[in-house]
Amino acid sequence: CLSSKRCRGSSGLSIMHNTPLASRCYSHGKVETDEEFDSRWVTYFSKPDLDAWELRKGMNTLIGYDLVPEPKILDSALRACRRLNDLASAIRILEAVKDKAGPHKDIYPYLIQELKPTLTELGISTPEELGIDKL
What we know:
Layout (H helix, E strand, L loop, with lengths): L1 E7 L5 E7 L13 H13 L5 H13 L6 H13 L3 H15 L5 H16 L4 H4 L5
Antiparallel strand pairs: 1-2
Helix pairs in contact: 1-3, 3-4, 3-5
């Protein structure tokens, strides 16, 4: 992967030279679409034999990406928490997503709005409802 870059030489003439690009040049693999990414994580958290360690590992990996997970991924992760009877992890997922949204104050309320039916169905309260967001 090379990119043409225009520079001024010592003579003042404009010259072209190629510089390597750092983005994805090292990989010859298929580039994953957003839909494939979402589907991969939904499938991961939907595995019936997923254990608590795999749940935490998956969430740590997911939160490590430069993105806020889509509601359908979070839905699948919260359902995995319910299957494992792990309320603490469910609350931690919501806290991590709120933290991940950072200064974008409209993202977290949107996620909670989208997840509200799932949260109600699974009996999971938000950190705000539990009053632990103020600690």
